[in-house]
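Office hours follow-up: a student asked to see two folded examples consecutively, so here they are.
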Amino acid sequence: MAHTGGDDLDDLIIDDYSNSSEEEELEEIDDIPADSPLDGEGAGAVANQGLDSAKDSEKKRKRKEKNKERKAKRRKLVEERESDEPQSLAARPPSELASYLFEMTRKVFTDLSELELEDIRIPESAIVDTTAWTGPRTLDQLSPFILKVVPGLHTRLLMKSKANGAPTLIFVTGAALRVADVTRILKSKQLRGEKSGDVAKLFAKHFKLSEHVSYLKRTKIGAAVGTPGRLGKLLCETGKPQTFIGPPSMTSCNIIDALSTSALTHIILDATFRDAKKRNLLDIPETREEVVKTVLGCPAIRQGIRTGKVQLVLF
């Protein structure tokens, strides 16, 4: 949700200024001597003072109500941004999603022939059918979404992780703040058991690659949430070189070291959420390239998709 501190501060400053002015006026009235020419009007002054206090309280109450309405409208705008047009994209059947992902791949690899593109196409069978979900694809619905549409993933998230740095789920999203929000949802008791592994929060802002490598090598994780750039580096740039599975013109990738795919069963693409410019994860050229080349294009992941071990979910 957008930060509203600035507006609250402005309102506070205005409130303090107006309140202090009224209080000063009341103090001036209180300081009038008893034998003042205004003494005969004392009863009226007291009545006016009570009336002013009532008006002041009413003003404060109305300001609070307006603040609540303003914040509610902002929350609604965020929800609408998440659930407008992109939801219809993510809610499409696997056949249409396979075509959509193929078009995104074509945009990344403009120099490949149709035959080469077909060779790296994500098959329809690898995409989870989420058409049974008719609700909004917003973060407050992520847990119910997983429980209903991907129950097998929920079962695995409840299990104890066996190896360090080896999640059963990789959640790919486009922004660091979004990573933090998704991480909080996946850490909920609704999705995790007492023995479940940690939920890794992986993005470049504030964290060096070496810090994430060290964390993953010593930590058992059930899920990894991250931006495609950082996920790609942890999947592809922390191990020994390996021949890429696919056309020679595609970016070479390394075997997984820090972020292992040994337990990986699901990859969720955060396709519904849009940034301030109304772009989703694959609309932005930079993140689209990172998703296609270094995440979905990583040899172990591509092999898992081909063999049916790894399934793709568009949320």
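And the second, which I mentioned at the end of office hours:
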Amino acid sequence: MPYQQKVWPDNGAREGRYILLAIALLIAFAFVAIPINQRASTDIVLKSYQVRADQLTTRQQTLVSQLKVSHEEIFDLHLELKDEGTMTVWPSILELKDLYLAPFTEDLNWQNLASISWNGLENGYYSGEMTTPELSLAQVLVNSQNEDSPVIWLHTDAQELPTNINDDLLLKQGWKQVVFVQTHRQAHSH
């Protein structure tokens, strides 16, 4: 009897099984790894009197970002004045204008931001009243006492500020507090 050899057809079935096995392993790995790699939700629940800074109009965001940047300089000036032992421990509006701090300096930017009339109140509070309606706001109140970030309040109607400013009085008058929220893109910038 002649020698017989069985020859299997080369149709790729064996390689196909290896590829299917590799795909199954990848899916199993993804099933395990993806939940582990998820970031925690940073959604902040806002109170009724709060508004996110990124929900403001473009001009309002410009004003808020300028106040946030100028806050650093205001707080540094406060520390310097405090160390010098001067009577006023917070810089005046005139000092802020002399330092060309936006939005306090009366320049073209100031005109574009509703020509705000600024007043320096006691204890690191600054109030601004809009003289033109470009910002859809009537007043802004900035509390610079916090070292990390200013507390900014906005109001759509002109209000007489109480002599002893506190959050409860501002809430009763209908002020909105601006909340700074770090976006996903900002949190993961490299």
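Two things to take away from it. The first strand starts at residue 50 and ends at 52. Helices lie at 13-36, 58-84, 93-98, 108-112, 167-172, 184-187.
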